[in-house]
# Entry
Amino acid sequence: MALPARRGKLAYKILLWFLLISLAPMGVVGYHLVNISQASLRKETLAMQESLAVGFADTVYKYVTTFKNVLAETSGIEEFSSMEPVKQQQYLNRIMQVHMGILELSVSNPQGIEQMRTGRFLGSSPEMRNFESDEFFAETMRRGQFIGKLERFQGVYPTVTVAVSIVDQRSQPARTAGVLMAKVSLNGLSSMLGMEFPATGRSAAAVVDKRDGFLIAHSNFKEVLRPEARMSDEVLKIITTQTAPKGGGPMALADGRKLLGAYSDVRDLDWVVYVQQPMEYSYQTAAEMRNQILRVLVWVVIFTILLSLAVAGHITQPIRLLREAAARLGRGQFEDLPEMMTTNDEIGDLAQTFLAMSESLKEKTGELINAKQELEKFTKFLEKRVEARTRELKAAQDELIKKERLAAIGQMASVVGHEIRNPLAVINNSIYFIKTKLGGALAGADPKIDKHIKIIESEIRQANGIINEILTYSRTRELKPEQVRLNNWLEELLSVYPFPPHIALDKRLDAANPSVQIDTTEMQQAIRNLINNGIEVMPQQGAIGVHTRLAEDGKSVVIAVADSGPGIPPDVVDKIFAPFFTTKARGTGLGLAVVRKVVDRHGGSVDVESEVGKGTIFKISLPVAQSAAPSAAPTSPPGAVIQAAQAVPPNPPSGRQT
# Structure
């Protein structure tokens, strides 16, 4: 008897409704409050980051232009433009003393040949250089100033090249007397970023060259000192693809981090200031609000549970009595029902209705008992009728099977009679010859007697082979499957098979070596039949290929038996598995029919691929044993069997016999 489905108790349902009524509005309101606060905080934080990015972009511009202005003022001094080395050296030394950010100063003539060079880390006699082909020199001579050419001083510290033209005001018109160039350290920018965005905080800022991601400055100075310090390609791509000079928004990085970033272009420079902050830090206040709401919800849940349990107990007490009474009625106990609580409400009405129902049920139960007895009598009568009909159907089925067997036996008898008639005729002629030759004398006197005896024995063996083939196909025995490793089983079969000297064996077995459930006796006969067929069509020279391949889904394995014989004509391929169909001069045509029957009994399939003049492949597909299904392993490439067969020199053209 099937057990009734378990249903939730009424008290639990009341509790659930109380919780939904009390928590749903609060949860919806809290959810919207958290979302509104998150949006407001993100907007405010983003605006602040954009303001910081814009302000520091202006600071960067002023920082660089300050050095440009110093060089411009110096180059405009008449004594300096006179290109007197002593005075120029004095001015350069004074600039180096006042501005610690300048690492190197250089003066070159209009041809780009360096005339003077001084620096903080140079020797007493530095080597003069030729700037004629340098970008900064050509740009300064053309425009009068240059800011750019980022590089790392001593391979570590970021510097920028700042250059102005030296104009000789004494000549009319004024002419360019040379170029004043300075290498300016940008470490000061990192120091300013570090003060604004300390390493202990969660925010970070950087100044980046938009062209190649060169890290000019960073709030964490260690980032600048890294070898080949660059901004990550992911962040750089986001920044450089923006068309507005400033902006910001949330960013999701490939490593799973979510950032709130802002940027601002540096005026007149191809630089950008980038400020970032973790998204969760921006939502910290919203998270605190969410925690407060969750604490309130916990207290509401506790209060609601206590209240609902009290209410549920009051409501469910009479219902429990009704349930107990209903259980007794279900067991057929119509007496001693529990006392019903007839309260003045719907539950009281339900109790009165239940009592009336119990009386009616008692009467109906008596009627059902009588009906059951009548039904049992009718059931016994039906069982007898069904048994009689079943016996009739069984007899008809047995008769039909008998007719089908008689038809098959008749067809086989025709073939067997034809095949046995010739050996019997030979036997009859040989006996007649013996009798005529000896004339009743003792046997053994004439050597031809031995010859004809051998002929008789050969024909008898042929007849026995035909009879065995027919009996093998016609009878069906119970399968005796056993689980074997396919490769090991094939190795054993091939090792004892008598291959003729003119036949080469090409054996390639899948490394997975799957397990299969087979009747080894029947499957051995099927494989040997396929090999025999291949050898018979290659009387002079050829190759037999035996390959295994695990299917891609790992659920089946294919055994391929190939030969390099003449192939099967297309008009014959569809008939080769039909019983008693053969193209041989002698034979029953049951070899391939037996193969198909064996494979079908194993739940597999057999297919054939043949090309006239190149060879034939028979493919047997068998299911892999479920208890030891191997994982897929590398298999032989498609067509490997045919290629192996084609490697053997072809036989003279002849039709394949089946």
Remarks:
- Residues 628-658 have pLDDT under 50 and may be disordered.
- The chain is about 50% helix and 20% strand.
